[in-house]
């Protein structure tokens, strides 16, 4: 038996990296019958050899982190890719994924792609907002190569997942980061102004400079993770400085009087759209509590 990293699950087979070798494996029966995903890309697994470079996964080792959409384990960094335009940035979706990543213990990195479409401006108003809050950001263009080396350095030495809506250029950006991967790319559907899904399965890619990158299917919606309603504001870090001004302990910053966060929104210290997204997410979390 040996230990390896699950780099791809496709067509009922699981591909495990052992050193420089790739082993094609099946999954032990008891795992296939489990309620939750038995083995995710990124898992460290124990494999029993069956024949030359084929084996059976008999054990999935404990995970440090776990995401479900995309389904991937042991990720340290989530690179959230959005485009300047084509398609336009969906900030509600970005906020949703920030909550999902941080609640899973994964460090987010916001990547603004297609920077060549800024027509001379080297900044984007919403990127300034997230940088001011404290989120790490990077700008890039797979077309011109701008920012690609900076992104490559940020990926080196960690396990990162690329995620974002379809059409923002995740696969093109990964091809620019590591020429030779030749990941399939797609054009924008002009009728819907949304990208055509080009990545059909989740795969762990090996960076020659060290580390792994997960190329995952684009997404258009995300369910928030289960949490207590009081927990949600932790994932809006700009609120932290103002919660001490709230009159009531456990304030949800919604309908409570004398709320420091609401006052900060009125004064412009907290961005109104971010706050509206918080309120929308809060309703979802409360509905989840009632269901469970």
From TrEMBL:
Enumerate the subcellular locations listed in this protein's record, separating them with semicolons: Cytoplasm
> Where this protein primarily resides, as one coarse class?
cytoplasm
Q: Where does Zn(2+) bind?
A: 246, 251, 253, 259
Q: Per the record, a Pfam family?
A: RsgA_N
Q: What is the main EC category here? A: hydrolase
UniProt cofactor(s): Zn(2+)
Gene Ontology biological process terms from the UniProt entry: ribosomal small subunit biogenesis
Report the EC code(s) recorded for this entry. 3.6.1.-
Q: Which UniProt keywords apply?
A: Cytoplasm, GTP-binding, Hydrolase, Metal-binding, Nucleotide-binding, Ribosome biogenesis, RNA-binding, rRNA-binding, Zinc
Give start and end of each CP-type G domain.
64-222
**Quick one: which residues bind GTP?**
113-116, 164-172
Q: Does the keyword Nucleotide-binding apply?
A: yes
Q: What does the record give under GO molecular function? A: GTP binding; GTPase activity; metal ion binding; rRNA binding
Q: Ranges for the EngC GTPase domain?
A: 73-220
Gene Ontology cellular-component annotations: cytoplasm
State the free-text cofactor note.
Answer: Binds 1 zinc ion per subunit.
Protein family = Belongs to the TRAFAC class YlqF/YawG GTPase family. RsgA subfamily.
Functionally, this protein is described as follows:
One of several proteins that assist in the late maturation steps of the functional core of the 30S ribosomal subunit. Helps release RbfA from mature subunits. May play a role in the assembly of ribosomal proteins into the subunit. Circularly permuted GTPase that catalyzes slow GTP hydrolysis, GTPase activity is stimulated by the 30S ribosomal subunit.
UniProt subunit comment: Monomer. Associates with 30S ribosomal subunit, binds 16S rRNA.
How is this protein named in the record?
A: Small ribosomal subunit biogenesis GTPase RsgA
Instruction: Name the gene that codes for it.
Output: rsgA
